[in-house]
Amino acid sequence: MSPGTRPAPTRLRWRPRAYLLWAGAAGLLLAAVAERDPVPIFLAIPFLLAGPAAALAGPRESPALGGHWEAEGSAAEVVVSGTLRAAERVDARDLVLAAPAPPGLTEVAPPVLDRAPGELRFRLRWQAREPTIVVAPPPEIVWRDATGLVERSATLDLPPLIVERYPPELLGIGAVRLRRTTSLPGESIARTIGVAGEFHGIREAVADDPPRRINWPASARQGRLLANEFQVERTGDVLLVLDTRMSSLGPAADARLLALSRAAAAGISNAFLRVKARVGLAVFAEFVTAVPLATGRRQQMRIRSALLGAHPDSSDAPSERCAIALRRYFPPGVTTILLSTLADENRADLVPHLRRRGFPVLTLSPSPLPLTLEGPPLPTADEALVVRLTRLVRREQIARAWEEAPAIDWDDFWSLGRFVDFLRRPDVRRVG
Amino acid sequence: MNGPAPRSRGLASLVLLGAVGGLFGYLSGLPDALGTIVVVAAVGLGAGLQRIRTRSIAHEAFPAPVVAALVSVALLTPYGLLAGLLGGASGVALLVWLADDPGRPAGGIGRSTLAIGVPGLAIGIAWASAFLLPPGAASLGVAVALLVFVVVAVAYLIGEPATYDREGSPLPS
Predict the structure, then answer these.
(1) Reported pTM
(2) pLDDT in tens, A335-368
(3) pLDDT tens digit sequence for B14-59
(4) Does residue A114 belong to the interface with chain B, where contact is any CB pair within 8 Å?
(5) Chain-chain contact of A93 with B71 (C-beta, under 8 angstroms)
(6) Closest residue on chain B to A122 (Cα)
(7) Which of A43, A90, A113, A155 to mutate: most B Cβ within 10 Å?
(8) What does the DSSP assignment read for A278-345?
């Protein structure tokens, strides 16, 4: 159980069905005494005794369940499958599972359960409305006797499950070679091109690696094949800046757009970390929470934790504060991807402040338009006018942002093709 | 994976409950086998509610019509050798029907042997002692004392669910 989670009450609970039987039994006993007729007593006996007998037959403490679960699927589809193993005295067929979909996901089909005496396998099908990164709470498991008279919550030992869904274009974004690559202190980049270039690090060998690429001494020490990796294969460093300040769009829209930004940030960081690029993250609320540039799986976990902890912030902190604070954590010149809605002046002016402090900014702006147009339809003529005006306002926001730095309008939430194209060919100027 | 339960699931226990309850209703002495009709109708209604596959109150309260019908019939049934036996058997048949819920995994009756067996055994002992022991004031006194003891013990067990917890459990309650 994750720390801070309130454990479910594990004490035995009588179900409404048990109370129904006891109410009947009480009435029968009273009537038997009043009428001096023993027949109601015979009917009252099973009603009275069934509950306690069922309780005695069940587990005497909260059943401890262990196992594993994982999320699969692609794009919007989320398939969670898992296996739970029950201890002695608990038949998995008496386990009842409830797994509500976490925020941002919707249940598309009821859970499919496959029960064996010692094992419960489950399969949940959810759908992501839009890109998201969310922690799925463990399912609630209750032991319930076969007659349905008593139940007891089970104690689950499952690690938290993080569900990440982002546009598929981000999977290959790590292959983009960024122009701005900052060197480490004391590092001099070799001009040699090819595998004879500057040594960067050691990684697990893959089947395609030629024998010359294998680092034989390191492989001998570790007992598994390891290969050399060279500087020329590295892409640049990336800094992701997440602006969590609330805007005039309202708390609900801000929360949804921030969730989209978090998902995009997770996807971008995962893709670049996969190719061993250094990635940093700055979450700007009232102050800056920074994850300094680094690479590796630990960095992935750090960034993920920081993203999961990012929520809309009501403070109206000045943008300059963010730019000044970033210089304390990150070197100037690092490729900076700002995730912001650009909805207000105060949010849009973060771009010039970042540029002035030496951060080359590329803005990825989740558009509030799809959210605005989700509401009930207006009469045709009015709706067309409203849609046109909101699009014009949005275009103007993006165009104004372009005066300072490239800005990509992200209005189709399941596609980041324009953003990836821009990273690949930044010289081709496109507005919006 | 477990597919939907076959339609015949729970039919045997339903027929058993209808048959035993119907006979018990017949002994109530109501004209035109009205007792039987009431019980069988209640069993049918309960079976219909049982098949509502939602988490509604209607599904949760599906045994209510059957319990109400059996209680009404028991209040009207005159004292007799067979009436007592069928009264107890109806209660046990109700538990069998509950355990054979088609909405739950199959084999419920086998898994609730204790929940069905203990009341069944109690009925057997009560019925045997009521009709096989010689009548007398002393026997009546013992029976009343036992009844009071059982009721108090059951009330205690119901009111203190912690009784069923293993002592020294490290788990928070």
Answers:
(1) 0.73
(2) 899 999 888 888 888 999 999 988 989 999 999 8
(3) 999 999 999 999 998 888 889 999 999 999 999 888 887 666 676 7
(4) yes
(5) no
(6) B1
(7) A43
(8) -EEEEEESSSEEEEEEE-SHHHHHHHHHHHHT---B-----HHHHHHHHHHHS-TTSEEEEE----SH
